[in-house]
């Protein structure tokens, strides 16, 4: 869901005629919070019977797939065509080694739990992203997996589910996705919106320019000359001139957008000019750093689900130039930004109530190869085994969960998949994984079929 178009509708065309054209619910004299509360009451608050440890979850998606051999599951004893060019370094946990280009995370390994036996069957970006961000396979929609672009038949993402189950009326969204929607050419990557729950549950899509990360998304800034009091008064006028009925998806989106504009918390969170420049520098002056700094600020205002995508699909998709790209561009920026996030959350007393999850949609092939003769070597897609990193919200740090074989190709211990990841995220947020949803045809679907990754909390390896 993008605020800019809605903002322009309510800002640049804020006239009586514009209100008549846009329409409203017709609830005369009701304030915006009152209206949203009424709608939330009508929708119900299913799935809120349990309370989890986490108030927020930050999902850091390494879009394209980070190789296990070049990060958290190195194989220094394997042949050079397997182990690659990087060397392992000792972490803060005796006997545990990370890649030499992740020194900051290595120094904080006592806060991290690394699951080294994540696995699923999908080697295609589209379907793998959907699995990782929803816990469910995507539905076939064409002759090949390349046809499985985003659809309203998709299973909803974490933030969308939470919004459906726990609608709120305070102008703070249940889900935010940043910095960019996963797009490559005409393809929109699935698993990042409300899917069959509809657009009213889409997370807010915030945008940062990868080439100008210092420029903020100003879509939550009121137009010049319009303050929240005037906007509130005009909402009453809109209600009196409406001919639209309730439960209109566009109106639901507009209501939420205007609530955010009136509240101002989200806009303030996005204004990095309010942040200490020295702290911003610790995150890094790049899109990774800016994204995770914004993620921390969104946690502070109470956003429950934040997806921070570290790049678009090509970013970690290192079929070519795997080692130069990781060494010079990707791993140092990630290492700096994620370490700063962990330190920042801990210093503010937020890490104990924020679950941080970092993973790609799959791993990379054990064998290093040349995609074409003479090309700089790389690694291809490999979903059979890959790592996921967890921290905060009761996670016991300093442990490695699960193991892969001698060449990092397959797990030799129990595997965990996207359904287990989803169960872990939902349980942390206090949502029962067995909660029932209804698709667009009214068919009952269980929210999640997986099991919570218990070793994260028990420190008992499997």
From TrEMBL:
Top-level taxon of the source organism: Bacteria
PROSITE patterns assigned: TAT
Pfam families named among the record's database cross-references: DUF1501
SUPFAM superfamilies assigned: Alkaline phosphatase-like (SSF53649)
InterPro entries: Alkaline_phosphatase_core_sf, DUF1501, TAT_signal
PANTHER family, alphabetized: BLL7424 PROTEIN (PTHR43737), DUF1501 DOMAIN-CONTAINING PROTEIN (PTHR43737:SF1)
Protein name: DUF1501 domain-containing protein
């Amino acid at each position: 869901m993008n605020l800019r178009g809605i903002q322009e509708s309510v800002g640049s065309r804020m006239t009586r005629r514009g209100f008549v054209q846009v329409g409203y619910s017709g609830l005369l004299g009701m304030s915006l919070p009152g209206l949203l509360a009424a709608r939330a009451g009508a929708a119900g608050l299913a799935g809120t019977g349990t309370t989890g440890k986490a108030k927020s979850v930050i999902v850091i998606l390494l879009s394209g797939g980070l190789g296990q051999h070049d990060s958290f599951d190195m194989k220094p004893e394997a042949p050079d065509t397997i182990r690659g060019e990087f060397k392992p370094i000792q972490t803060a946990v005796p006997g545990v080694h990370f890649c030499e280009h992740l020194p900051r995370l290595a120094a904080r390994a006592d806060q991290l739990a690394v699951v080294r036996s994540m696995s699923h069957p999908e080697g295609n970006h589209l379907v793998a992203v959907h699995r990782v961000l929803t816990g469910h396979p995507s539905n076939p929609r064409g002759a090949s997996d390349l046809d499985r672009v985003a659809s309203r038949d998709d299973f909803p993402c974490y933030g969308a589910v939470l919004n459906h189950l726990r609608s709120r009326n305070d102008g703070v969204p249940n889900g935010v996705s940043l910095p960019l929607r996963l797009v490559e050419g005409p393809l929109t990557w699935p698993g990042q919106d409300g899917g069959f729950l509809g657009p009213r549950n889409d997370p807010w899509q915030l945008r940062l320019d990868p080439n100008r990360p210092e420029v903020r998304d100003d879509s939550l800034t009121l137009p010049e000359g319009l303050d929240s009091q005037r906007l509130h008064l005009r909402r009453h006028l809109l209600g009196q001139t409406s001919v639209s009925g309730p439960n209109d998806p566009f109106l639901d989106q507009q209501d939420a957008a205007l609530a955010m504009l009136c509240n101002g918390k989200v806009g303030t969170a996005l204004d990095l000019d309010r942040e200490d420049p020295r702290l911003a520098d610790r995150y890094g002056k790049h899109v990774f750093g800016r994204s995770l700094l914004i993620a921390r600020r969104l946690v502070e205002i109470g956003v429950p689900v934040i997806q921070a995508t570290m790049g678009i699909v090509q970013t970690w998709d290192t079929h070519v130039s795997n080692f130069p790209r990781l060494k010079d561009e990707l791993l140092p920026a990630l290492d700096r930004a994620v370490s700063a996030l962990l330190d920042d959350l801990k210093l503010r007393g937020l890490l104990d109530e924020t679950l941080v999850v970092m993973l790609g949609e799959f791993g990379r092939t054990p064998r290093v190869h040349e995609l074409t003769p003479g090309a700089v070597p790389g690694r291809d897609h490999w979903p059979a085994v890959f790592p996921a990193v967890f921290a905060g919200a009761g996670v016991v740090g300093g442990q490695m969960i699960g193991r892969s074989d001698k060449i990092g190709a397959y797990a030799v211990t129990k595997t965990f998949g996207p359904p287990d990841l989803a169960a872990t995220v939902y349980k942390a947020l206090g949502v029962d994984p067995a909660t029932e949803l209804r698709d667009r045809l009214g068919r009952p679907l269980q929210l999640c079929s997986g099991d919570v990754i218990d070793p994260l909390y028990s420190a008992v390896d499997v």
